[in-house]
Specification:
Pfam families: LRR_1, LRR_8. 4% of the residues lie in helices and 21% in strands. The protein has an 11-stranded parallel sheet, with no helix packed on it. It starts with 8 loop residues before the first strand and ends in an 11-residue tail after the last strand. The chain contains 2 helices and 21 strands. It has 294 residues and is mainly beta. It has one domain: Alpha-Beta Horseshoe (Leucine-rich repeat, LRR (right-handed beta-alpha superhelix)), CATH 3.80.10.10.
Length: 294
């Protein structure tokens, strides 16, 4: 690679490369984009701190065993960092220039601690993915950056209530489009303040301990396309207000304590019976008809 001194972008993703990442990459002085994802690279990273122009790096889905995020990644001004499944563990990293980060993906690792202050000064962050770790914290401990559009926290050990993350960050998350907190230990109701997320397109709170009723205010989320509240403790009826959400293409209400007639009409009539299964007493299409009281 020593002869490729003018190379600005290098993408070797989705191939069958194996072995160590060649140290000669560090000679690419003009390289600003490096994508080695979805290969079989293994071992530790070489000393490739000599990439002065680098702003985007993706090492996801390899066989790397990094342990911790290397200092040469933490200490430089990067906008896009993707380290999915890189064998990272312990505390979340502290970046020296968090204000430059726009997209950060540390999913499918083994991080446990460090959420408090983790996003301090990450003022430009738009997308955050910490799903598939072992993070243990209460939702009230996380402060989201203003203007963030995607937050993925699924498959961790997170506790607390949705009210905490929505109310504590109400002025910061009005642009949020994706919120995924599935497969955690979150409890309490879905608060009416969820309507503050006026641009929300995807909501996943499945496999938690969310209780109470589905708020009718969900019908105000007119951009909502995907909602999953399955495997929780929700009771009461499915609100008919969602009939007004014309863009909804996926919904899952399975395995709760919901009861009553499923609202009839789109979008409810496009979902399969499995989306309503294992509830207390839901009825009406696509389930069997409700019993007529005599």
């Amino acid at each position: 690679m020593a002869g490729l001194k003018s190379l600005a972008r290098l993408s070797l993703s989705s191939n069958r490369f194996s072995g160590g990442i060649p140290p000669s990459i560090s000679t690419l002085q003009k390289l600003w984009y490096l994508n080695l994802s979805s290969n079989g690279f293994s071992g530790q990273l070489p000393g490739i701190a000599g990439l002065p122009s680098l702003v985007s790096i993706d090492l996801s889905f390899n066989n790397l065993s990094l342990g911790t995020v290397p200092n040469w990644i933490k200490d430089r001004q990067l906008s896009d960092v993707r380290l999915t499944g890189c064998g990272l563990k312990g505390r979340l990293p502290v970046f020296s220039r968090p204000d430059s980060l726009m997209s950060l993906d540390l999913s499918r690792n083994s991080f446990e601690l460090g959420i408090s202050g983790f996003l301090t000064n990450a003022s430009s962050l738009q997308s955050l993915d910490l799903s598939g770790n072992q993070l243990t914290f209460d939702l009230k401990e996380i402060t989201l950056p203003p203007g963030i559009s995607s937050v993925q926290l699924g498959s961790n050990r997170i506790t607390g209530s949705l009210s905490a993350i929505l109310n504590n960050n109400s002025s910061r998350i009005s642009f949020l489009e994706v919120l995924n907190v599935s497969r955690n230990r979150i409890s309490g109701p879905i608060p009416d303040s969820i309507t503050n997320l006026t641009g929300l397109k995807r909501l996943d709170v499945s496999r938690n301990r969310v209780s109470g009723t589905l708020p009718a205010s969900l019908g105000k989320l007119i951009d909502l396309q995907w909602i999953d509240v399955s495997v929780n403790l929700l009771a009461g009826k499915i609100p008919s207000s969602l009939l007004g959400v014309k863009r909804l293409r996926h919904a899952n209400f399975r395995a709760n304590r919901l009861c009553g007639e499923i609202p009839q009409g789109r979008p409810y009539n496009i979902f399969p019976a499995s989306a309503y299964a294992h509830n207390l007493c839901l009825c009406g299409k696509p389930l069997p008809p409700c019993r007529v009281r005599k």
